[in-house]
Protein backbone atom coordinates (compact mmCIF):
# COMPACT_ATOMS: atom_id res chain seq x y z
CA UNK A 1 0.00 0.00 0.00
CA UNK A 2 1.48 3.33 -1.08
CA UNK A 3 0.77 5.44 1.97
CA UNK A 4 3.14 7.89 3.65
CA UNK A 5 4.33 6.68 7.04
CA UNK A 6 2.45 8.51 9.83
CA UNK A 7 4.22 9.64 12.98
CA UNK A 8 1.39 8.38 15.18
CA UNK A 9 -1.98 6.66 14.78
CA UNK A 10 -4.81 7.47 17.19
CA UNK A 11 -7.84 5.15 17.30
CA UNK A 12 -11.13 5.80 19.06
CA UNK A 13 -13.69 3.24 20.23
CA UNK A 14 -17.45 3.25 20.75
CA UNK A 15 -19.76 0.51 22.05
CA UNK A 16 -18.08 -1.90 24.43
CA UNK A 17 -19.37 -4.96 22.60
CA UNK A 18 -17.85 -3.74 19.32
CA UNK A 19 -14.34 -4.27 20.68
CA UNK A 20 -13.48 -7.06 18.17
CA UNK A 21 -13.66 -4.40 15.47
CA UNK A 22 -11.24 -2.24 17.45
CA UNK A 23 -8.80 -5.16 17.72
CA UNK A 24 -9.05 -5.90 13.99
CA UNK A 25 -8.55 -2.24 13.10
CA UNK A 26 -5.42 -1.97 15.22
CA UNK A 27 -4.09 -5.25 13.82
CA UNK A 28 -4.60 -3.96 10.26
CA UNK A 29 -2.78 -0.73 11.06
CA UNK A 30 0.02 -2.68 12.71
CA UNK A 31 0.41 -4.89 9.63
CA UNK A 32 0.90 -1.84 7.40
CA UNK A 33 2.93 0.33 9.79
CA UNK A 34 4.62 -2.08 12.22
CA UNK A 35 6.92 0.54 13.76
CA UNK A 36 4.36 3.32 14.30
CA UNK A 37 2.91 3.92 17.77
CA UNK A 38 -0.85 3.35 18.12
CA UNK A 39 -2.93 5.00 20.86
CA UNK A 40 -6.44 3.84 21.72
CA UNK A 41 -9.05 5.97 23.47
CA UNK A 42 -12.80 6.40 23.57
CA UNK A 43 -15.77 4.72 25.25
CA UNK A 44 -14.61 1.09 25.19
CA UNK A 45 -11.11 2.10 26.28
CA UNK A 46 -12.64 3.92 29.26
CA UNK A 47 -15.36 1.51 30.38
CA UNK A 48 -13.27 -1.64 29.84
CA UNK A 49 -9.85 -0.13 30.40
CA UNK A 50 -8.07 -3.20 31.81
CA UNK A 51 -9.31 -5.42 29.01
CA UNK A 52 -8.37 -2.83 26.38
CA UNK A 53 -4.86 -2.57 27.77
CA UNK A 54 -4.44 -6.34 27.76
CA UNK A 55 -5.99 -7.26 24.43
CA UNK A 56 -6.49 -4.30 22.07
CA UNK A 57 -2.97 -4.39 20.62
CA UNK A 58 -2.48 -0.65 21.11
CA UNK A 59 0.79 0.71 22.48
CA UNK A 60 -1.08 2.95 24.87
CA UNK A 61 -4.69 3.07 26.07
CA UNK A 62 -6.17 6.32 27.34
CA UNK A 63 -9.19 6.30 29.65
CA UNK A 64 -11.53 9.23 30.00
CA UNK A 65 -11.91 12.33 27.87
CA UNK A 66 -8.87 12.48 25.62
CA UNK A 67 -9.16 15.96 24.13
CA UNK A 68 -7.20 17.57 26.97
CA UNK A 69 -4.38 15.03 26.52
CA UNK A 70 -4.04 14.96 22.73
CA UNK A 71 -1.34 17.59 22.34
CA UNK A 72 0.78 16.11 25.13
CA UNK A 73 0.44 12.62 23.62
CA UNK A 74 1.52 13.90 20.21
CA UNK A 75 4.56 15.57 21.75
CA UNK A 76 5.51 12.44 23.70
CA UNK A 77 5.28 10.08 20.74
CA UNK A 78 6.54 12.31 17.93
CA UNK A 79 8.73 14.93 19.56
CA UNK A 80 6.63 17.62 17.91
CA UNK A 81 5.34 20.14 20.41
CA UNK A 82 2.43 22.49 19.77
CA UNK A 83 2.16 25.78 21.59
CA UNK A 84 -1.61 25.74 21.81
CA UNK A 85 -3.37 29.08 21.93
CA UNK A 86 -6.59 27.45 23.05
CA UNK A 87 -7.63 25.65 26.20
CA UNK A 88 -8.61 22.04 25.31
CA UNK A 89 -11.11 21.95 28.19
CA UNK A 90 -13.01 24.94 26.81
CA UNK A 91 -15.64 23.65 24.32
CA UNK A 92 -15.93 27.10 22.74
CA UNK A 93 -12.25 26.88 21.77
CA UNK A 94 -12.55 23.62 19.87
CA UNK A 95 -12.27 23.79 16.08
CA UNK A 96 -15.27 22.77 14.01
CA UNK A 97 -15.30 19.12 12.91
CA UNK A 98 -14.09 18.75 9.32
CA UNK A 99 -17.42 17.71 7.82
CA UNK A 100 -16.37 19.54 4.65
CA UNK A 101 -14.01 16.64 3.86
CA UNK A 102 -17.10 14.68 2.80
CA UNK A 103 -18.08 14.71 -0.85
CA UNK A 104 -21.63 15.51 0.21
CA UNK A 105 -22.86 16.71 3.60
CA UNK A 106 -26.32 15.37 4.34
CA UNK A 107 -26.66 16.89 7.80
CA UNK A 108 -24.55 18.32 10.61
CA UNK A 109 -24.39 16.69 14.06
CA UNK A 110 -24.15 19.20 16.89
CA UNK A 111 -22.61 18.66 20.32
CA UNK A 112 -23.21 21.66 22.55
CA UNK A 113 -23.04 20.04 26.00
CA UNK A 114 -20.65 17.48 27.46
CA UNK A 115 -21.69 15.51 30.51
CA UNK A 116 -24.99 15.36 32.37
CA UNK A 117 -26.05 16.38 35.89
CA UNK A 118 -28.13 13.22 36.32
CA UNK A 119 -26.69 9.85 37.30
CA UNK A 120 -29.24 7.40 35.90
CA UNK A 121 -28.77 3.77 36.89
CA UNK A 122 -28.53 2.53 33.29
CA UNK A 123 -26.32 5.30 31.86
CA UNK A 124 -22.52 5.73 31.87
CA UNK A 125 -22.32 9.38 30.82
CA UNK A 126 -21.64 10.41 34.41
CA UNK A 127 -18.59 8.10 34.44
CA UNK A 128 -17.38 8.98 30.94
CA UNK A 129 -17.71 12.73 31.42
CA UNK A 130 -17.64 13.75 35.11
CA UNK A 131 -18.98 17.25 35.53
CA UNK A 132 -20.52 19.28 32.77
CA UNK A 133 -19.19 21.70 30.14
CA UNK A 134 -21.21 23.75 27.68
CA UNK A 135 -20.55 25.83 24.61
CA UNK A 136 -21.97 29.32 24.61
CA UNK A 137 -25.24 29.78 22.72
CA UNK A 138 -23.52 32.35 20.49
CA UNK A 139 -20.85 29.82 19.52
CA UNK A 140 -23.47 27.22 18.63
CA UNK A 141 -25.50 29.65 16.52
CA UNK A 142 -22.30 30.71 14.72
CA UNK A 143 -21.63 27.06 13.81
CA UNK A 144 -25.18 26.54 12.54
CA UNK A 145 -24.92 29.74 10.51
CA UNK A 146 -21.53 28.68 9.08
CA UNK A 147 -22.73 25.33 7.74
CA UNK A 148 -26.04 26.71 6.53
CA UNK A 149 -24.67 29.66 4.57
CA UNK A 150 -21.44 28.10 3.29
CA UNK A 151 -22.71 24.61 2.46
CA UNK A 152 -26.49 24.98 2.26
CA UNK A 153 -27.12 22.57 5.16
CA UNK A 154 -30.68 22.61 6.48
CA UNK A 155 -30.70 19.65 8.87
CA UNK A 156 -28.90 19.79 12.22
CA UNK A 157 -28.96 16.97 14.77
CA UNK A 158 -28.38 17.55 18.48
CA UNK A 159 -26.46 14.70 20.15
CA UNK A 160 -26.28 16.27 23.61
CA UNK A 161 -27.10 14.20 26.67
CA UNK A 162 -28.45 17.24 28.52
CA UNK A 163 -29.56 19.78 25.93
CA UNK A 164 -32.58 21.02 27.90
CA UNK A 165 -30.98 21.16 31.34
CA UNK A 166 -31.10 24.78 32.55
CA UNK A 167 -32.71 25.78 29.24
CA UNK A 168 -32.89 29.50 30.05
CA UNK A 169 -29.11 29.82 29.76
CA UNK A 170 -28.46 27.36 26.94
CA UNK A 171 -31.03 25.73 24.63
CA UNK A 172 -33.54 28.58 24.57
CA UNK A 173 -30.92 31.26 23.71
CA UNK A 174 -29.70 28.96 20.90
CA UNK A 175 -33.17 28.75 19.36
CA UNK A 176 -33.73 32.47 19.90
CA UNK A 177 -30.46 33.16 18.08
CA UNK A 178 -31.54 30.98 15.17
CA UNK A 179 -34.78 32.94 14.89
CA UNK A 180 -32.97 36.29 15.03
CA UNK A 181 -30.65 35.12 12.25
CA UNK A 182 -33.70 34.03 10.21
CA UNK A 183 -32.12 30.68 9.40
CA UNK A 184 -34.33 28.33 7.40
CA UNK A 185 -33.16 25.13 9.09
CA UNK A 186 -34.54 21.99 10.76
CA UNK A 187 -33.43 20.50 14.07
CA UNK A 188 -33.62 16.88 15.18
CA UNK A 189 -33.22 15.52 18.73
CA UNK A 190 -32.65 11.74 18.52
CA UNK A 191 -31.02 11.71 21.95
CA UNK A 192 -33.54 11.71 24.76
CA UNK A 193 -34.30 15.22 26.00
CA UNK A 194 -35.31 15.96 29.57
CA UNK A 195 -39.07 16.07 29.85
CA UNK A 196 -39.50 18.25 32.91
CA UNK A 197 -37.89 21.25 31.18
CA UNK A 198 -40.58 21.39 28.50
CA UNK A 199 -43.05 24.21 29.06
CA UNK A 200 -45.59 25.98 26.86
CA UNK A 201 -43.03 28.71 26.13
CA UNK A 202 -40.10 26.38 25.38
CA UNK A 203 -42.24 24.10 23.20
CA UNK A 204 -43.49 27.05 21.14
CA UNK A 205 -39.96 28.42 20.77
CA UNK A 206 -38.61 25.05 19.57
CA UNK A 207 -41.43 24.72 17.06
CA UNK A 208 -40.85 28.24 15.68
CA UNK A 209 -37.09 27.65 15.44
CA UNK A 210 -37.53 24.59 13.23
CA UNK A 211 -37.34 21.63 15.62
CA UNK A 212 -38.77 18.72 13.63
CA UNK A 213 -37.91 15.54 15.53
CA UNK A 214 -38.14 15.12 19.32
CA UNK A 215 -37.45 12.05 21.42
CA UNK A 216 -38.41 12.23 25.08
CA UNK A 217 -36.41 10.38 27.74
CA UNK A 218 -39.33 8.61 29.37
CA UNK A 219 -37.70 5.13 29.66
CA UNK A 220 -40.49 3.63 31.82
CA UNK A 221 -44.05 4.41 32.90
CA UNK A 222 -43.66 2.63 36.22
CA UNK A 223 -43.61 6.02 37.94
CA UNK A 224 -44.06 4.61 41.44
CA UNK A 225 -40.76 2.71 41.26
CA UNK A 226 -38.71 4.65 38.75
CA UNK A 227 -36.37 6.03 41.41
CA UNK A 228 -34.46 2.77 40.91
CA UNK A 229 -33.71 3.96 37.37
CA UNK A 230 -33.60 7.75 37.46
CA UNK A 231 -35.26 10.82 38.90
CA UNK A 232 -35.84 12.67 35.66
CA UNK A 233 -39.60 12.89 35.40
CA UNK A 234 -42.92 12.29 37.13
CA UNK A 235 -46.17 11.17 35.52
CA UNK A 236 -47.62 14.67 35.80
CA UNK A 237 -44.53 16.22 34.21
CA UNK A 238 -44.67 13.75 31.32
CA UNK A 239 -48.31 14.46 30.44
CA UNK A 240 -47.76 18.20 30.86
CA UNK A 241 -44.79 18.14 28.46
CA UNK A 242 -46.71 16.17 25.84
CA UNK A 243 -49.62 18.60 26.08
CA UNK A 244 -47.27 21.57 25.67
CA UNK A 245 -45.63 20.06 22.59
CA UNK A 246 -48.91 19.19 20.91
CA UNK A 247 -50.37 22.62 21.64
CA UNK A 248 -47.24 24.19 20.13
CA UNK A 249 -47.99 22.44 16.84
CA UNK A 250 -45.88 19.29 16.93
CA UNK A 251 -47.49 16.30 15.21
CA UNK A 252 -47.62 12.71 16.41
CA UNK A 253 -45.01 11.52 13.91
CA UNK A 254 -42.59 14.18 15.16
CA UNK A 255 -42.83 13.13 18.82
CA UNK A 256 -41.54 9.91 20.33
CA UNK A 257 -40.90 8.64 23.85
CA UNK A 258 -38.09 6.18 24.48
CA UNK A 259 -39.04 3.09 26.46
CA UNK A 260 -36.34 0.75 27.73
CA UNK A 261 -36.90 -2.93 26.98
CA UNK A 262 -34.91 -5.81 28.41
CA UNK A 263 -34.03 -4.30 31.80
CA UNK A 264 -33.02 -6.73 34.56
CA UNK A 265 -36.13 -8.48 35.91
CA UNK A 266 -38.40 -6.47 33.60
CA UNK A 267 -41.55 -8.23 32.48
CA UNK A 268 -43.03 -8.09 29.00
CA UNK A 269 -46.29 -6.97 30.58
CA UNK A 270 -44.66 -3.82 31.98
CA UNK A 271 -43.35 -2.89 28.52
CA UNK A 272 -46.78 -3.52 27.01
CA UNK A 273 -48.30 -1.22 29.62
CA UNK A 274 -45.74 1.49 28.86
CA UNK A 275 -46.49 1.27 25.13
CA UNK A 276 -50.18 1.62 25.84
CA UNK A 277 -49.72 4.67 28.09
CA UNK A 278 -47.52 6.46 25.56
CA UNK A 279 -49.93 5.75 22.71
CA UNK A 280 -52.85 6.98 24.81
CA UNK A 281 -50.98 10.25 25.35
CA UNK A 282 -51.00 10.75 21.58
CA UNK A 283 -47.33 10.30 20.67
CA UNK A 284 -45.20 7.44 19.38
CA UNK A 285 -43.53 4.84 21.66
CA UNK A 286 -39.92 4.14 20.66
CA UNK A 287 -38.47 0.91 22.06
CA UNK A 288 -34.82 1.03 23.09
CA UNK A 289 -32.89 -2.15 23.92
CA UNK A 290 -31.20 -2.04 27.31
CA UNK A 291 -27.42 -2.49 27.24
CA UNK A 292 -25.65 -3.44 30.50
CA UNK A 293 -22.75 -1.02 30.93
CA UNK A 294 -19.83 -1.33 33.35
CA UNK A 295 -19.49 1.43 35.98
CA UNK A 296 -23.23 2.12 36.06
CA UNK A 297 -25.36 1.64 39.15
CA UNK A 298 -27.33 -1.12 37.40
CA UNK A 299 -24.27 -3.13 36.32
CA UNK A 300 -24.20 -5.51 39.29
CA UNK A 301 -27.94 -6.12 39.04
CA UNK A 302 -27.56 -6.81 35.33
CA UNK A 303 -24.73 -9.28 35.92
CA UNK A 304 -26.82 -11.11 38.50
CA UNK A 305 -29.90 -11.24 36.25
CA UNK A 306 -28.12 -12.31 33.07
CA UNK A 307 -27.68 -15.94 31.97
CA UNK A 308 -24.36 -14.81 30.45
CA UNK A 309 -21.14 -13.97 32.27
CA UNK A 310 -21.27 -10.27 31.40
CA UNK A 311 -18.12 -9.40 33.30
CA UNK A 312 -16.05 -11.98 31.43
CA UNK A 313 -16.50 -10.54 27.95
CA UNK A 314 -18.18 -7.33 26.71
CA UNK A 315 -19.57 -9.26 23.74
CA UNK A 316 -22.28 -10.60 26.08
CA UNK A 317 -23.58 -7.07 26.72
CA UNK A 318 -24.73 -6.71 23.11
CA UNK A 319 -28.34 -5.62 23.39
CA UNK A 320 -29.40 -7.66 20.36
CA UNK A 321 -29.26 -10.81 22.51
CA UNK A 322 -31.26 -9.23 25.36
CA UNK A 323 -28.46 -10.00 27.85
CA UNK A 324 -30.72 -9.60 30.90
CA UNK A 325 -33.50 -11.63 29.40
CA UNK A 326 -36.58 -12.30 31.51
CA UNK A 327 -38.48 -15.54 31.01
CA UNK A 328 -40.45 -15.15 27.82
CA UNK A 329 -38.50 -12.10 26.64
CA UNK A 330 -37.32 -13.20 23.19
CA UNK A 331 -37.06 -11.88 19.67
CA UNK A 332 -40.52 -13.22 18.96
CA UNK A 333 -41.88 -11.43 22.02
CA UNK A 334 -40.00 -8.27 21.05
CA UNK A 335 -41.45 -8.44 17.54
CA UNK A 336 -44.91 -8.56 19.10
CA UNK A 337 -44.07 -5.48 21.18
CA UNK A 338 -42.95 -3.65 18.04
CA UNK A 339 -46.21 -4.62 16.39
CA UNK A 340 -48.11 -3.08 19.31
CA UNK A 341 -46.21 0.17 18.71
CA UNK A 342 -47.47 0.52 15.13
CA UNK A 343 -51.03 -0.80 15.50
Globally, the shape reads: globular
- Based on secondary structure, the structural category is alpha/beta
Give the helices and strands as they follow along the chain.
Answer: EHEHHEHEEHEHEHEHEHEHEHH
Largest sheet: 6 strands, parallel
How many domain modules? 2
Helix content: 25-40%
What would CATH call the architecture of the largest domain?
A: Alpha-Beta Barrel
And the CATH topology of the largest domain? Answer: TIM Barrel
Side by side, the strands of the main sheet go: 4-7-8-9-10-11
Low-confidence spans:
none
- Counted by DSSP, the helix tally is 12
Question: How much beta, percentage-wise?
Answer: 15-25%
Straight-line N-to-C gap: 53 Å
What would you give as the CATH superfamily of the largest domain?
Answer: Aldolase class I
Overview of the molecule:
The protein is an alpha/beta fold. It has two domains: 8-78, no CATH class; 91-342, Aldolase class I (TIM Barrel), CATH 3.20.20.70. The protein is 35% helix and 15% strand. Strand 8, helix 8 (200-209) and strand 9 form a beta-alpha-beta unit. The model has no long low-confidence stretch (mean pLDDT 91).
Amino acid sequence: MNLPRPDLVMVTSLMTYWYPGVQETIAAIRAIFPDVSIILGGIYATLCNKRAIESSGADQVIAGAGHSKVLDLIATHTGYSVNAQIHPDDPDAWPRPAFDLQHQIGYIPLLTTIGCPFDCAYCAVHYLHPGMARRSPENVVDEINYWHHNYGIRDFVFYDDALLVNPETHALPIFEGVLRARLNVRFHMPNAIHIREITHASAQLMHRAGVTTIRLGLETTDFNHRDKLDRKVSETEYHHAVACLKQAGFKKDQLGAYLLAGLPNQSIRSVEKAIRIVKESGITPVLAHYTPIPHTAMWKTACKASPYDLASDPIFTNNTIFPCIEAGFSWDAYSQLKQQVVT
